[in-house]
From TrEMBL:
Coiled coil: none annotated. Belongs to the PET191 family. Keywords: Disulfide bond. This is Cytochrome c oxidase assembly factor 5. InterPro entries: Cyt_c_oxidase_assmbl_Pet191. It comes from Orbilia javanica.
Length: 80
């Protein structure tokens, strides 16, 4: 994960931890999905959106043959 996305991720985590959704016993996965997502503070919603855009922007920069989940990246000498 690029460092800028990691910083956004950490900010999302901290925002979720402080939210009423987590304090009411819901999991982070539940809190970031509808309908609970609508009840998150605007700051958390904005951070979630920015984090999603960040991940998407880096995914779009890679050609499909070299996606981060591609088995080709795991083979030795794949960049020769």
């Amino acid at each position: 994960m690029p460092s800028s996305c990691k910083e956004l991720y950490n900010a999302v985590v901290e925002c979720l931890r402080a939210s009423d959704c987590i304090k009411n016993g819901y999991s982070p996965a539940e809190c970031i999905r509808m309908p609970l997502k609508e009840q998150l503070p605007a700051q958390c919603q904005n951070l979630l959106h920015a984090y999603g855009e960040c991940k998407l922007s880096f995914k779009l920069l890679l050609p499909p043959s070299l996606s981060l989940q591609s088995p080709r990246l795991l083979r030795p000498g794949c960049f020769k």
